[in-house]
Amino acid sequence: MHRSRYVARLCAVVAAGVIFCQVGVVQASTEDLAPMLANIRTAQNFPGAAAVVMKDGRIVAQGATGVRRLGEGAAITADNRFAVGSVTKRMTVYLVARLVEDGKLSTDLKLGEVLKDISMRDEYKGVTLGQLLAFTGGIAGYERIGPRITPELFDTAGTLAEREAKFAQHVLNLAPAGAIGREAVYSNASYMLAALMVSRVMDKPYMDLMAEYVFRPLSMSRAGWGRPWQADRKDEPWLHVARPDGHAPEPDMERPPEVLFRAAGNAHMSVADMARFAQEDLLARRGKGVLLKSPKLWTTIGASRELDPGDRTVHAGGTPWLAACYAVWPLHGMVAAIAVNGGSPDDAACKAFVKEVETRFAPMTTSMGTNIRNAVRQSR
Q1: What share of the chain has pLDDT > 70, as a percent?
Q2: Rounded to an integer, what distance in angstroms lies between the CA atom of residue 108 and that of residue 219?
Q3: Element containing residue 28 per DSSP (H, E)
Q4: Domain boundary residue among 186, 209, 232?
Q5: In degrees to the nearest 10, what's the CA dihedral of 188, 148, 226, 273?
Q6: Residue 4, pLDDT above cutoff 60
Q7: Which of the ends of the chain has fewer CB neighbours closer than 10 A, N or C?
Q8: Whether residue 269 sits in one domain with residue 308
Q9: How far apart are CA 364 and CA 362, in angstroms?
Q10: Do 82 and 271 touch, CB atoms closer than 8 A?
Q11: Average pLDDT over residues 324-348
Q12: Separation between Cα atoms, residue 319 and residue 86, nearest integer Å
């Protein structure tokens, strides 16, 4: 155990959606999660991780383990940035929910109404924004991508807007991947189209909207886009590919698809940022969100699902080179988040962390015998 400074904020939300706070500092006891994370890392042999646990909006435990890049000595810290994969989808849903609650958007908007300049099959013209977020729009999945199997994602000619329109037209002229309105087919492209619709209606880029309505208002100060490590951010973790014989640093190369799929899984942030979002998720379920006030709106938009009262919900994102998740325990007023700078097959790191957190901080939940359920599947 060690002492840390806990920042208490008395906040007011203004019409622009920005939170202004008066800040006071009080002492709080914070448990070090490093030993727990080190045990999980040893068992699963990933490069490194950071995690945080919050109760009633206060950080009660945090820590980090491992290295930023295998073969180098720099240690991961609790405030490092991590790629969060499909956890981004939950934040995209939150953006839409905020805009709907503000009366600026409707989930009943149709592809054919908003993307009038893009030719598409007739079946897709009636697909709504809500169906795209719920994966029931029949959109191709694009879970496996590569220059040979999905060359349309690697066409970098033109501006970003032109690339988006070109890819949208390609996707919307494919045969439906499932029965529209009836069958849920997990799809990264579905969230790309949803973000394109939102940007068109709001006349503002998706990333700018996320900053305005999600990141800044929720004080997610280290949230951004793309790989955490960049030429101007060399103190951030490198991602590592999970292989049968261990992890290896991923190649340093351009990844054109990630810009198109940013709404599906391209965000990065600290685990504290992820926990702040998880705390808003928890409060919004109760109709007491800092920004979002409608629990019905929050729990019905998108592909997430509510579990029985007292259970926990886990939202996870993962690829062969990253793993991240946050969990919400409504009865305990508790949230937790973990991120790994390497792949974790079958969400193993997340599952082990959530189990440990329940045992240590919410023993009642463990006795219920519930299983960890991912409300957002991995983006592959």
Answers
A1: 86
A2: 30
A3: strand 19-32
A4: 209
A5: 40
A6: no
A7: N
A8: yes
A9: 6
A10: yes
A11: 94
A12: 9
